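Hello,

I think I submitted the heme C job twice by accident. Can you confirm which output corresponds to this input? Input:
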Amino acid sequence: MAKMMFPLAAAVAAIAAPQIAHAAGDPVVGGKMFIQCRACHTINAGDRNGVGPNLNGVVGRKAGTRAGYSYSPAMTASGVAWTAVTLDAFLARPSAKVPGTKMAFAGVAAKKTRDDIIAYLASVPAPKR
Ligand code: HEC
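Support: Only one job matched these inputs. Its output is below.
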């Protein structure tokens, strides 16, 4: 019996691993989904702000603090820190998470797509120092 258990456990681990990766979001898929954000946002370090602020390094930064961008008073005063959790809520419905935001975007309905986009946001390299 013990001999049978080991290959079974290994097989279960092999099946479970990609699902854990899935739960954390797929940055490659997220990069494709980011096309719907590109109309207003740049992402690479050093890119200019557009209609919306440059999003390089946004995961882990305080909302409304990108230098040189003119935020809405609502965003500046929101006190939100961007984490996977707060970004998920904002991207689901920007106007619900930050009432008064000037991000004119309805939201991303699918949780999986939000996870993928957030994984992508976190994956883009920060500026070299
Ligand atoms: C129609 C233009 C537009 C689109 C499309 C758009 N955004 Fe925005 N976004 C904005 C604007 C404008 C702001 C600034 C909001 C404010 O100051 O209230 C913003 C702010 C943000 C912020 C807060 C940034 C900070 O520095 O605090 C995040 C995060 C964000 N957008 C992510 C996204 C993502 C991800 C997408 C795609 C799913 C997206 N946005 C699509 C215009 C847009």
